[in-house]
Predict the 3D structure of the following.
Amino acid sequence: MSEDTFRSVNIERTSVGKYVVRNVRGGSLPMGTGEDGDFTPVELLLAAIGGCTAIDVDHITSRRAEPIQFSVDVTGDKIRDETGGNRMENLRVEFTVTFPAGADGDRAREALPRSLQQSHDRLCTVSRTVELGTPVTTVEAAGSTGD
């Protein structure tokens, strides 16, 4: 992997069921089991799917007009499937976007459906990865057992 393609985060346990996710730029986000206000991993997955598409759509449409309203609702059902494993299904990303009246707003409104489709089909790394079903490898780091 080259430096321009590699992405990573570090997750550190702070107490039972509580963690801090950190990126290489110094950002941090609390994560937990859902017993408090911290985001759960599933909520972060939904946020990543919606956030990725939101960034794509915002960059495309806001070149034409600044939105008056721009919100995204991401929903899905957490189920236990026929193999007994947990997963999400019925994932839905719903945009509510309003642009001002006038020619610029008209151009932005016209670009919105196309930008949603471009994000879904080509631009959003997160939703494309989920839809294509990229394998995940889970391993124990050498020497991590404390022996």
Summary: The beta strands are 9-15, 18-23, 28-32, 69-80, 86-98. The CA atoms of residues 66 and 99 lie 7 Å apart. The mean pLDDT is 95.
